[in-house]
Amino acid sequence: MSCCGSTLDYAELDEVSRLVSTRLAAFLRTLRDNGFPVGLAEGRDAAALMASGYAAKPGLLRSALKHLFSARKSDWEKFDGLFDAFWLGKRVRSRSMTVGSTKAANSPSLKSLQDKGSEVPGNQSATDQVPSSDDAPDGRSGEGKMEGASRAENLAEVDFRQLADPEQIEQAHDAAARLAKVMRTRLTRRDLARRRGYRLDLRRTIHKNISHGGVPITLVKRQRKDKPLRLVVLLDASGSMSLYTSVFLRFIHGVLDEFREAEAFLFHTRLAFVSDAMKEKDAARALDRLSLLAQGTGGGTKIGESLKTFNRWHAARVLHSRSCVMIVSDGYETGDAALLGREMAALSKRCRRIVWLNPMMAWKGYAPVAAGIKAALPHVDLYAPANTLQSLAALEPYLAKL
Amino acid sequence: MKTREEIAERLAASGYIADGELATAISLMQLLKRPLLLEGEAGVGKTEVAKALAGVHATELIRLQCYEGLDQSSALYEWNYQRQLLAIQAHRGEDADAVEDRIFSEKYLLERPLLAAIRRDKPPVLLIDEIDRADDEFEAFLLELLSDFQVSIPELGTVTATTIPHVVLTSNGTRELSDALRRRCLYHYVDYPDVDREARIIMTRIDGTSASLSLQIARMVEGIRKEELRKVPGVAETLDWAAALVGLDVRDLLEVPETVHETLMCLLKTQEDKARMTREVTERILGKVA
Fold first, then answer.
1. 3-class SS at A352?
2. B4-25: per-residue pLDDT in tens?
3. Which residue in A53, B35, B43, B222 has a CA-CA distance of 20 to 30 Å to B130?
4. How much is the pTM?
5. What is the distance between the alpha carbons of residues A352 and A230, in angstroms, rounded to a whole number?
6. Could you tell me which residues of chain B have a Cβ less than 8 Å from any Cβ in chain A?
7. A2 in a domain, yes or no?
8. Interface contact flag, B175 A317, Cβ < 8 Å
9. Is the pLDDT of residue A85 over 50?
10. Which residues of A touch B186 (CB under 8 A)?
11. Do β-strands B150-153 and B157-160 pair in parallel, antiparallel, or remain unpaired?
């Protein structure tokens, strides 16, 4: 810190300010790496701020920079830790470690799940593709179908877990992203076509007709502005879903990219808000960022508890009257099923529709008997399979009606 | 230009008990000429900050309450159409240019909050309340205004700000704000006050509360906030409750557990929360207050 006395001559002062600005630039880089929206203007302001006496005490500087650099609550909360770590050399508290957390290394990250999905080397694929639980029925029987005439078309009907060769997986991912795009354009067009004025806007009519000397010749109608549909996706990333997560992640990436209003969450034993990470244009980089967020994917599922977190901390922000919550999960609840029921009831009060997509539903002999899904079903508006691209596409007309 | 200490003093003098960081934020607002974005749960006193800020600068507070569908004509300016029409009728037969000049003059301009804020002699505090309720389009428009501080009115020309107002934006987080807006603003998260600060707030705001009663109320409210409620009581609710207790002549919460439980309706605003706060729960929290 530049706590210099007044005895320094100019050359030394220059040296000090150069040191400070190098240090500041490094700090800005650290902040950027931690997802702070720091631009050139902020850098300039920070320099101005340090020059005008705020650097006298670390506490004051921290507080000032915190106001300048934070843009949202999460930034606000982790700033102190980052500041102390950088300027004062203290250890960063665990909650501010969004990047490079130690826990992420121990548990299988999303990226590794994704890699597992796409780099299947030959014969290993069978073990990778069969779910660990014994509920899985005849896993590999459908493979022969894929060698038909048109691959692309066939792909739409193939269960995601039966996609083995990397090229196919890539295709499926692209198709999922494309699907999201098509859904968005269609929904928007419907939106526009419906707009038609139904009430006279008196003020504007008078305004418009001043040129006619006040005789109302041109009428101005008032039209209700349609809120665009907001899609909130909650994706189960637990072990039992591992075969489907990668495709759905691509779908979500497409949805976030294309829909005007969409938010995404990931849950397993806890809930993570992933919209920001997924807004990265490049899908691979998005997944990379995601892997840092999602610790403990591939473990058990606490749907009820995750929903509780959602209801308490996120629902007010992300839900409005024209939102559809899409839960993608197999419904194997390892937590308290009664809690899941309660939270589903609370959720259904807040949003327009709840769609529950269950990839297992299309499996032969599957019945929703698990305690979790049984508790949740009464509050679900649409319960649909989602194991193929076709079944995903079938959702679109439903969403358009909301 | 005021120092942080002065600002903290002036805030206190105008009845707002601030945490230390808010004074820093306000001094930064002056230094960097940036708007201040306040976020926090409903009822933590975000709007009060703007009012107190107006007190600090001894200036006018201009408030723009945002809502869905808010547009330029109710935020910036509008022509007074009725009067324009009357003027046209009254001056029938006059030269057309003269009539036009007449009806598109200041006299027929209705000033709305945003225009008012940039045309004052002394910089006012402009409070843009609940910006998250306005549409994206309005937010984009606001961005432009906040960077240039000038407004162009086609019929009249460009109005440039005579003074740059102190801008405070508040958000309840019902919608995610755009990154562009967030970047342009200083950010301050207003949290629920700690027991000590809340007690001081009660003492300053409600006449007739003793220090011990304020502290008890603050502790009680803190305990209630820790319960899993759907709607966590804010500072405004605390003040309501304190006023109710004073009105009922309560001196010590521990003496009148019955009254305490019955007046909890000031704090609990949903059926579920009422059901959750049973008599036993009230007594348990009351037990910790002592």
1. coil
2. 788 888 888 888 888 778 888 9
3. B222
4. 0.65
5. 10
6. 4, 20-21, 24-25, 28, 31-32, 34, 36, 39, 69, 73, 79, 81-82, 84-85, 88-89, 103, 135, 172-176, 179, 182-183, 185-189
7. no
8. yes
9. yes
10. 67-68
11. antiparallel
